[in-house]
Each structure stands twice: as C-alpha cells, then as structure tokens.
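Field reference: sequence -> structure
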Amino acid sequence: MRVLIIKTSSLGDVIHALPVIDYLHQVSSGIEIDWAIEEHFLPLLEHNPHLARIHVIRTKKWRKAPFSPETRRDLKFLREDLQARPYDFVFDIQGNLKSGLVAWLTGASKRIGFSREVLQEKINSLFTTRRIPFRACDRNVTDRYLRVVSVPFGRDYPSLSLSSDIFSSPDDEEAADRYMAELPSGLVFFFQVGTTWSSKLWHPQGWIELARKTLEKYSDATILINWGSPAEKALGEDIIREVGDAVRLLPWFTIRELIPVIRRMDLVIGGDTGPVYLAAAVGTPTVSYYRATSAASYAPQGEQHRSIQAPMKCAGCGRTSCDKDAECRSSISVDALFNAVVELIA
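Structure field:
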C-alpha cells in the first residue's frame, strides 16, 4: 500500500502531524508513505527513514511569478511526479485551497480530508472524496490529524503508543556538538521569546525575571535566547543587559541547524510556536504558555512537558490582536513558569 500525506506548513503544524507516520507503519505492514511539504520546511522530513518520498511544494516562489515558464515547468513536474506513484489513499491534513489542488493533481480516487464545518478554506472540500468529522475526544491538533488518517484503517489511534522524531544529517549533528562544546558546563536552557502573533507573546519583564530566578536556582546554567527578527534579537539583548553574561544570544540558525541544537538542550521555554514543538518532537522537555490559543489543542503532551494557560476568561480567543493584550500577557506569572521549570529539572 502507498499513501500520500499532504501537510505543507507551518513549522509547528507539520511537527504536530509527525505521529501519523508512526501510526501508519503500525497499522499497515510494508506501507509506503510519501509526504508533500513546502520547501522551507523540508528539513523536518528530509532525513526521515520512514518516508519513501517527499514532494516539495514551492508556493511562495510560484505566487511571485504564476505564469512564468519556470512556474509552469515546476507544476508540470509536480503533477507528473505525483501521478507516477499511484496512491491508495491521499490524506489532506492541511485543509486549504493549495493542499486541495495538490490532492487533485495526484489523480487518486480516494482523497480524504477534514469535514467542511471545520475548514477555514471551505473550497478545500471540493477536492476531497471523503470528509472525516472530529470526535469529542479529538481535542489536540495531533489527535485531529490522526482521526483523519485512521478512519480507513479501522484502528483507533488512542489504543496505540505513538512517537515522533526529526532526523538530522551526521554533519549537522557534529556541528551542534561543536557549538555545545563552546558553552560552559551546567544546564542549558533555551528561551523562545518570539512567535508569529502579538497575542501569543509574553511581556519582556517576565522573561527578565524568569531568567534571574532560573540562574539564582541553577547558578552554573546558561540561558540561550533564540531569535528570528530584529525585535526578538533586541529583546534578547535587553535580557542580557539586565541579567548578565550567563544569558547568550543564539547564532541565527536555519531550521536544519536548529534541530540538533534543540535536541541537546536541557529545557525549552516558550509560547505557542514552532521551536517549542520541535523540542518536544526530538525529546527535549518543554514549558509552554498559551494566551490566544489553547493549551488543550496545542501543548506538547507527556510527563516531560508542562503548559500554562492564561487565566483570562477570554483565553483561547484565537485573536491575533486585542485591546486587553497587556493584561493577558501579565496574567501569566513568572512563578507559574518557574515552578514548572523546577518540576521538570528536579
């Protein structure tokens, strides 16, 4: 049997979908699994020994020049590549127009996706031949992906112990070892201070106070600040000025370079953002907080993870901005995050 998973983006969402690989191998011996993904997120999959083939999507490039000869050649090649490997099932767990078109290009007769009422882009339902509704127990986003994939196999996912991992090349693993060897001995904490929405951010003073309390408790520790924008870098520099040189800025790492570095951290702390989920996938403990989004839906699961939901009545609102933003940020206390850190490190 051969199946295609269509989960093209984003960083966190692709990571949340990784357990479907383990599920499929457990329920169908000898299965071949292909995956369609945006080029930017290819490092999450490219070394995975459990995937037979990866189809690379270049939507950003194609949108810039939709009618160019190069775009037409790329799309022609993608269609030929998809149809050269006939699929018994195509699972669209992205659920937008882009993923629907990829599913349609396969020519497969069984294209399975989300039920129409949960789709943000309803047009996606035109490209699937079977649409799977969620059940009440499907609270976490990973559960929802597994629900869609599991139905044709008749084996419910909660009965299985499922894992996810992200694999790196030997060269990238060695580079991470060299970077870690330059750090002082002691625990290494990873602070993910940035994310995509302002309504997912914590307040800067909170990060400063958390860094101070962490270093008071673990005096030989190092705190690494990850950043991906000038604003995030500036916040990291502010934390260093306030706390001292036990706090350092990480170099700017690509996703490929970041994976093995996060694997070597003792603990990752951050909000609803890709690097937190990357840490969970590679086996690194996490402490995460949630404001506009829901911990029940997105937080890493398991004994080595802790999550804090903002205690606001409107928490999990899904809004990208709000006039109560400052109040919501402050509602997540330093002590709540610090106590979770101590629980995991003890």
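Note: The first strand starts at residue 2 and ends at 6.
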